Amino acid sequence: MLEKDIEKILVTNEEIVAISKRLGKQITEDYRDKNPVIIGLLKGCLPFMAELIKHIDIYCQIELMGVQSYHGGTESSGNVKITKDLDVSIENRHVLIAEDIVDTGKTINVVKNLLKYRGALSVEVVTLLDKPSGRTEDFTPKYIGTTIPKEFVVGFGLDYDEFYRNLPYIGVLKPEVYNN
Ligand code: 5GP
Q1: End-to-end CA distance of the chain
Q2: How far is the CA of 152 from the centre of ligand 1 (A)?
Q3: Is pLDDT larger for residue 157 or for residue 78?
Q4: CA distance linking residue 14 with residue 19, whole number of Å
Q5: What is the distance between the alpha carbons of residues 130 and 19, in angstroms, rounded to a whole number?
Q6: How many A from CA of 2 to the centre of ligand 1?
Q7: Is the link from the previous residue into 8 a cis peptide, with omega within 30 of 0?
Q8: Which parts of the chain are beta strand (E)?
Q9: What single DSSP character describes residue 160?
């Protein structure tokens, strides 16, 4: 049903699983004995975070934060709104933020600074997708799944107008979908 709206697939589900395995292994090595808190940014992080944590084999905790940066369209609004705050203190904790995509870098910079201000020992970022061509802020995630060109993508957590998050892969929509 949803597939008819997709022009092309950029990252297949098999590739996402392989990426998650690679990143999970690296995170397992880097965070051994650090008991990190992995904080997912809602809602886009959900499928990636669920896949990633299956491949992390250390003591860690999972938390979620609601952050909104796009408001229905395909361009970053520049405003970052916290829609759901953390339920726990992250003071003196190693924090790993899990993101679906880093585009301008605004969202991640705001959240990173907030968590540092609240006393986190370290704050790093793992993102499934990186779109470096969209960057307006100086930021490079420590863990990157794969780099994509400057295109608006949907699927595996990423939405257009809150739809398509449930696609099992990352794809580009047909132009007529935007024009409807
Ligand atoms: P940034 O603040 O880095 O510009 O944007 C990060 C957020 O914008 C992501 O978490 C995601 O919600 C949204 N975003 C950025 N690029 C895309 C994209 O290509 N497709 C979708 N669906 N959302 C995107």
Answers
A1: 17
A2: 8
A3: 157
A4: 9
A5: 13
A6: 20
A7: no
A8: 6-11, 37-42, 61-68, 81-84, 94-102, 122-130, 143-147, 153-154, 170-173
A9: B
